[in-house]
Backbone:
């Protein structure tokens, strides 16, 4: 049911782990639903220079977390905010319909991380 | 990563990985003796059992003999067995058939919160059609609470439907006591024995069972064939309309090869019940010991002792079941989970949550269901592979990190 790309990111997740001294973190989902995603970003001159994640969830949740960290690296904040759940799902060669909510979670985590950064900087969202 | 641009899975291209099947509560491999009988029937006995000439007679004899075997396995009479397309149809026919067949007595049905969807959805359909259904709760081990069952019985109760062993936890229900209570109160009693038929001794008279559902493919038989035992004198309405087959209760030309397969599978099950069961029990205990020794923060789900000998349901804290299944599948190990992510719904297992498990613990459950073909070597392989998979998923889990941080502080 999963694409090879999803399985690849599940088997070999990119940028997995906690980021100490991050500039922004997005924590979304809850254990009741079976998904928790934490996305950390490091930012220099409005460019996301590094991203990491930790996730409790199914194969699709892990793959979308991994993919979103890959997609945001090197992007400006404006560019990063244009990444939608569809972008993440497409980059993984698609997700089964029942798993689309995992890509929404990835988008939400990214938006929450940027918002967290802006809040800390005292910039309006 | 892509290899030569093909993205083919390594285990399919470079070598055939040895696979370990531990999901026998979902379905079982076809027994070779059964396969031989089914194939012979498919090739040679194509006759319609309803016809009078020799081909029909040959087919009729096969159906007759299979019915006899199935009946004898549960202490029933041949004429009390009806062949169906499987467990789901048997459950539908029992629940809806009895409800509609006894409408003059009342419109109240009792079932439990841990039934298979074939029973639960039949009950829900009845509710929409003006019946009332009471779902009796279970205790923390997943055993139906008899005190609640007693309280639920009303003058207009027509049916109690409670399964023999639960498919997810393997917990065995006090079916004899339920049968006695139902008989005393004059209520018809149906039990879904899809997980126990041929594995556990069943006697419909001693256990006061009025209707019983069974399926062939959980018993190393073919898919698409099952049976419903209906005690003589029980009134029920048929769901399907057509010819005179199965006393008009279940019309449609007999699935003779399927029926032959069910009969053969039942015959083998009866022959191997005791020895095979003990072997599987030892393997399951070996697996549980291995898991307990090698992995921390786990929980056994289901009754510790009164449980189907092949089933082991364990929750692994801080991780999610589907990711464990995928990780184990990469090692060739096939198991099931009560996680929502393995189903099309967003809810975790209704069975585990009915037992009082929190959703996050239910999400992290794995069900190992063993079969007679499993070996010690296979179990030992699982025991060494599983901790690594759990450890890998925990290393990604923010829940586990939080837990470790808290541990460090205290």
Residues:
């Amino acid at each position: 049911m999963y694409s090879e790309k999803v399985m690849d990111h599940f088997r070999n997740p990119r940028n997995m782990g906690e980021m100490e001294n991050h500039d922004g973190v997005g924590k979304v989902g809850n254990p009741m639903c079976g998904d928790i995603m934490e996305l950390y970003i490091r930012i220099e001159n409005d460019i996301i220079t590094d991203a990491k994640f930790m996730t409790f969830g199914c194969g699709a949740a892990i793959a979308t977390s991994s993919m979103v960290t890959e997609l945001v690296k090197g992007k400006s904040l404006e560019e990063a905010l244009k990444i939608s759940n569809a972008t993440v799902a497409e980059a993984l060669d698609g997700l089964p319909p029942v798993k689309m909510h995992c890509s929404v979670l990835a988008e939400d985590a990214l938006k929450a991380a940027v918002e967290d950064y802006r809040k800390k900087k005292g910039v309006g969202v | 990563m892509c290899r030569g641009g093909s993205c083919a899975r390594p285990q399919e291209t470079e070598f055939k990985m040895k696979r370990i099947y531990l999901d026998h509560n979902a379905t079982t491999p076809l027994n070779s003796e059964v396969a031989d009988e089914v194939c012979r029937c498919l090739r040679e006995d194509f006759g319609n059992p309803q016809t009078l000439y020799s081909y029909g007679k040959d087919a009729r004899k096969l159906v007759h003999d299979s019915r006899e075997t199935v009946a004898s396995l549960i202490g029933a009479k041949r004429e009390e067995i009806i062949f169906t397309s499987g467990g789901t149809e048997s459950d539908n026919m029992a629940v809806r058939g009895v409800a509609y067949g006894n409408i003059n007595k009342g419109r109240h049905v009792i079932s439990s919160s841990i039934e298979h969807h074939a029973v639960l959805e039949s009950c829900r359909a009845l509710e929409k059609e003006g019946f009332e259904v009471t779902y009796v709760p279970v205790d923390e081990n997943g055993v139906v609470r008899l005190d609640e069952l007693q309280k639920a019985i009303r003058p207009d109760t027509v049916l109690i439907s409670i399964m023999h062993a639960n498919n997810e936890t393997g917990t065995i229900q006090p079916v004899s006591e339920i049968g006695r209570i139902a008989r005393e109160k004059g209520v018809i009693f149906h039990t879904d024995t899809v997980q126990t038929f041929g594995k556990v001794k069943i006697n419909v008279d001693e256990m006061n069972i009025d209707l019983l559902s069974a399926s062939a493919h959980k018993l190393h038989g073919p898919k698409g064939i099952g049976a419903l035992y209906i005690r003589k004198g029980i009134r029920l309405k048929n769901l399907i309309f057509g010819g005179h087959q199965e006393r008009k209760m279940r019309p449609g030309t007999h699935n003779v090869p399927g029926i032959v397969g069910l009969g053969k599978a039942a015959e083998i099950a009866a022959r191997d019940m005791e020895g095979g069961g003990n072997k599987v029990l030892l393997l399951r205990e070996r697996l549980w010991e291995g898991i307990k020794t090698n992995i921390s923060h786990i929980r056994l789900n289901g009754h510790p002792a009164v449980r189907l000998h092949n089933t082991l349901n364990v929750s692994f804290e801080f991780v999610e079941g589907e990711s464990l299944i995928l990780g184990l599948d990469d090692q060739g190990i096939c198991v099931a989970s009560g996680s929502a992510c393995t189903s099309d719904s967003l809810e975790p297992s209704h069975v585990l949550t009915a037992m009082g498990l929190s959703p996050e613990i239910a999400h992290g459950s794995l069900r190992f269901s063993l079969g007679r073909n499993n070996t010690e070597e296979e179990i030992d392989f699982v025991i060494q592979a599983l901790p690594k998979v759990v450890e890998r998923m925990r290393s990604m889990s923010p829940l586990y990190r939080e837990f470790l941080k808290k541990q460090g502080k205290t």
